[in-house]
Amino acid sequence: MYDPNTGAILWGVNTGADTGRGLSADIDPRTIGEEVWAGNGVGLRTVTGTLITNTLPSSTNFGIWWDGDLLRELLDHTYSSSSSTGVGKIDKWDYTASTTSNLLTATGTLSNNTTKGNPSLQADIFGDWREEAVWRKSDNSALRFYTTNYESNYRFYTLMHDPVYRLGVAWQNIAYNQPPHTSFYLGDGMSTPAQPSMYTP
């Protein structure tokens, strides 16, 4: 974890091996800010490096704002090593039991990039601040758009008005596949974000 102002290392975990991927998202309201996790013995930690549990969430691939609360859910796939493909899914981390529960299995779809389990796209497309997941059909004949059916008491400007988030959506298709993040903290205990600078011609 680096200090963004100075580049100084604040804390880290030396695994002695390649740690291929990790994720940062607010999935536990008991700690302030986002939680971070990765494989190879890193565990699930607070942003200050305190170990919460050695039990990892089901995904280190993508986080997604899906249901009605401010915590982020986990976007991944059920991977089959025999076919090198996976079916898209969304899980929720149960922070009290240190386990995950499934919210959506996108039956009839496939993820991309073998073990990475990337969707074709993840973004706040329809503009209610929760994100949509797009996967290809298993026969590659079409794309399927999945949107949440959970109600929410929270209202924000569309995430696509945030330039950092919008850039994150773009890089899913032109660079290394990672989930988009906002320039402001979107999670439990957040402040009301500033109104985006937007206009209509």
Describe this structure in words.
The chain has 201 residues and is mostly beta strands. It has a domain at 58-174. Helix content is 6%, strand content 28%. It has one helix at 163-174; strands at residues 22-25, 35-38, 43-45, 51-53, 62-64, 73-80, 85-94, 99-105, 109-110, 121-123, 132-137, 143-146. The strands form three sheets. It has a four-stranded antiparallel sheet, with no helix packed on it. The protein is globular, with a radius of gyration of 17 Å. The mean pLDDT is 92.
Unreliable spans are none
Alpha carbon gyration radius: 17 Å
Q: Tell me the overall shape.
A: globular
Structural class: mainly beta
Q: Provide the spatial order of strands within the biggest beta sheet.
A: 1-2-3-4
Number of strands: 12
Helix content: under 10%
Number of distinct helices: 1
* Mean pLDDT value: 92
Give the termini distance in whole angstroms: 42 Å
Give, in order, the helices and strands.
Answer: EEEEEEEEEEEEH
Major pleated sheet: 4 strands, antiparallel
How much β-strand is present in the residues?
A: 25-35%
Features:
single chain; 201 residues; mainly beta; 4-stranded antiparallel sheet; 1 helix; globular
What topology does this entry show?
Blueprint: E1 22-25, E2 35-38, E3 43-45, E4 51-53, E5 62-64, E6 73-80, E7 85-94, E8 99-105, E9 109-110, E10 121-123, E11 132-137, E12 143-146, H1 163-174
Antiparallel strand pairs: 1-2, 2-3, 3-4, 5-6, 6-7, 7-8, 9-11, 10-11, 11-12
